[in-house]
Amino acid sequence: MGKALLAFSLSLAVAAAAVRIEKTDYHGWKNTYRITNGTVELMVVTDVGPRILSYRFSGGRNIFKESENQLGKSGERTWQGRGGHRLWVAPEKVPDTYALDNAPVEAEVRGDALIVTEAVEKETGMRKRMVIRMALSGTGVTIEHEITNQSGKPRLMAPWALTQMAPGGVGILGFPARRSHRESLAPTNPLTMWGYTDFTDPRWKILKKYLILRQDPKVPLAQKAGVFNPATFAAYLLGTDLFIKRTQADPSKTYPDFGCSVEAYADAGIEELETMGPIVTLDPDATVEHTETWSLHPGVSISEWTDEALDRVLVPLLQ
Q1: What is each CA distance from 159 to 44, 230, 288, in whole angstroms?
Q2: I need a labelling partner for 56 at 20 to 30 A (CA). Which of 21, 27, 149, 265 fits?
Q3: How confident is the model at residue 4 (pLDDT cuts 50, 70, 90)?
């Protein structure tokens, strides 16, 4: 190939591999930012939030939950689930965790990043921010979550990133690498239960390497469990679309909920995949960060819910 033709081909590839960030109307939220690279798209609402309400293949269905009776609304006096992806403060308690996010947030496009920042929360004195970047090609997304303490006093807390998934799928959490008794005399991880956790519920399946929670719109009872995994990930299979979110956890640090870096929750309306950062004493004006990376994979089929079948699908995607 000649140099001129090679340069022309490279210029076409660069032009094709580009991320567009544009403002649009989404379900009545007129200040929504659409981020797309032609393969996948995000919808980031700024009339409330910060909240990423949609992640999908271009022209495909949203893999995130959308609460239809809450779409397009704002200014409510109570906390609203809405759906999608949000940032919370752990441990879970009222009112700190349930600080209202029903007001507009600031949005700034800075190069390839969309930065969304809320006003200081009246309930907590915290300010939350997401820095959202999409890969030039493929399906990769990186979300840098930031919480700044502007309360004027130290706060004991941990960042907590929650994603509400569309109903009808199956959530998958991974345990740390399994080893023999001789190789692993010390425990490797907790398996945390809540007062309402019931592992006899058929929505659960506990394997050697994985913890599975199926979302069933016909079952109203809530279920939740959490684990610690240094290579933290959570996956969700909806039809043949597989969503994966990942973060790195530090075994030398203390994590919320008896040491969880990742948790799964399900009821009749949603499944929620949640990653946690370590507990910190956040001094006034200090910021804590927690980063997740996302990917979306089409045409995925899991023939049976066994370690071997899950390994065949997940191991190549997680390497």
Answers
A1: 20, 16, 7
A2: 265
A3: very low
- Contact status, residue 256 vs residue 158, Cβ threshold 8 Å: yes
Q: Please report whether residue 10 resides in a domain.
A: no
Q: State how far the Cα of 185 lies from the Cα of 274, in Å rounded to an integer.
A: 29
Q: Which residues pair with 280 in a beta bridge?
A: 157
Tokens of 289: 């960060």
199-247 pLDDT, tens per residue? 999 999 999 999 999 999 999 999 999 999 999 999 999 999 999 999 9
CATH code for position 93: 2.70.98.10
Domain count, the chain: 1
In a domain, 9, yes or no: no
Residue 166 falls within a domain, yes or no? yes
Residue 112: CB atoms within 10 Å: 15
- Return d(Cα 86, Cα 119) in angstroms, integer: 15
Is residue 58 domain-resident? Answer: yes
Rounded to whole angstroms, the Cα distance separating 249 from 217 reads 32
SS3 58: coil
What is the residue range of 215's domain? 17-318
User: Could you identify the residue written with the tokens 């299979």?
Assistant: 237
Total H helices, total E strands in the chain: 3, 21
